[in-house]
């Protein structure tokens, strides 16, 4: 039984939502502790009506813990996961640090739930832009094998954590007031602007965020032949990542067939009526756990192409919801033993 939980990075943008989701989904537990850095140690958190005090994470924090859900920066994840595993705990990690390591399953429950069985103590949750894209790809890939994907992202500022959210709001106020504001999460002004760079240079002019979409997609589908060409852009939207996705499949898929496949798929909601002005938008998808799809249409430039618009809450399905779903899979698998 997995009944003793630790939430690592409990005070961050993703950590706050993990707490909320565990409450919303009535996640079963006996004990729970909330960990962060010295900066937040001592902060009071109310969880399921009880007051908890945030503790500073140390190697001893994981004694007696069965599952730790981590949403910390990469460096902290690199440090704490081995401590937790040594203490006999299973780590569900949100950071980028463990995702591509051998022996670490990279799991999206709607796509490859079976992969959790191969864990050796650490299970990773993918990058937020990758997660919503692979949920959308799954029914099309099953039906007609996706050979190639061209994706452009429109990523919200909450993707850069609590500081990213503040930068947009405070930066916009500064522009409107004519005052100065020093951006903390972004290299350029994000208010009333777009930034076509997320992450540092990584490969052949692509950024680290873009290459995560390439490598993680292949690992999740267990298919190294899938070609992905991404462009990741930061936009002045507080929450929800949007993506324009074009897939090329082995056999042609009509818009009608794609709509049916999406409608039947786990974790997808179709909102698609161009005439009525209905399609997913960040404003309507924020606070929801699904991946929303609209603007489904044939690629008029290519016989086997299909294109659509995809929006999802990056802090929920892109991070916290996916991690909590993985923890739920673990709990279900332990109950089945
Ligand atoms: N935001 C998003 O859309 C997504 C984020 N992720 C990943 O999730 C992780 C967290 O992101 P996010 O919530 O946005 O980031 P935030 O900066 O908002 O929060 C970071 C959290 O980690 C804690 N932390 C930092 N260093 C340590 C440490 N050494 N030991 C213990 N706790 C530490 C912080 O504690 P303190 O309050 O004390 O500083 C805080 O609770 C990152 O790896 C990110 O890449 C993944 C998918 C999507
Ligand atoms: N980099 C993403 C969010 C994120 O944290 O991704 P990752 O977990 O891969 O570092 C964004 O800024 O929108």
What is this structure's SSE topology?
Layout: E1 4-8, H1 13-24, E2 31-36, E3 44-47, E4 50-53, E5 55-56, E6 67-70, H2 74-86, E7 90-93, E8 122-124, H3 128-144, E9 146-155, H4 161-177, E10 201-203, E11 206-207, H5 208-221, E12 227-234, E13 241-249, H6 255-264, E14 268-270, H7 282-285, E15 291-298, E16 305-312, H8 316-336
Parallel strand pairs: 1-2, 1-6, 2-5, 6-7, 7-8, 9-12, 14-15
Antiparallel strand pairs: 3-4, 9-13, 10-11, 13-16, 15-16
Helix pairs in contact: 1-8, 3-5, 3-6, 3-8
NADPH dihydro-nicotinamide-adenine-dinucleotide phosphate binds at residues 8-15, 35-37, 39-40, 57, 71-74, 76, 94-96, 127-128, 158-159, 161-162, 314-315, 318-319.
- Total count of domains: 2
CATH-assigned fold name of the largest domain = Dihydrodipicolinate Reductase, domain 2
**Overall shape:** globular
- What is the typical, i.e. mean, pLDDT? 97
Total beta strands = 16
Terminal CA distance = 9 Å
Ligand inventory reads:
NADPH dihydro-nicotinamide-adenine-dinucleotide phosphate, aspartyl phosphate
Q: Please identify the top-level CATH class of the largest domain.
A: Alpha Beta
Structural class based on helices, strands and sheet pairing: alpha/beta
For the report, how would you describe the main beta sheet? 6 strands, parallel
Rg on CA atoms, Å: 20 Å
Kindly state the percentage of residues in helix. Answer: 25-40%
The oligomeric state is single chain
Give me the CATH architecture of the largest domain, please: 2-Layer Sandwich
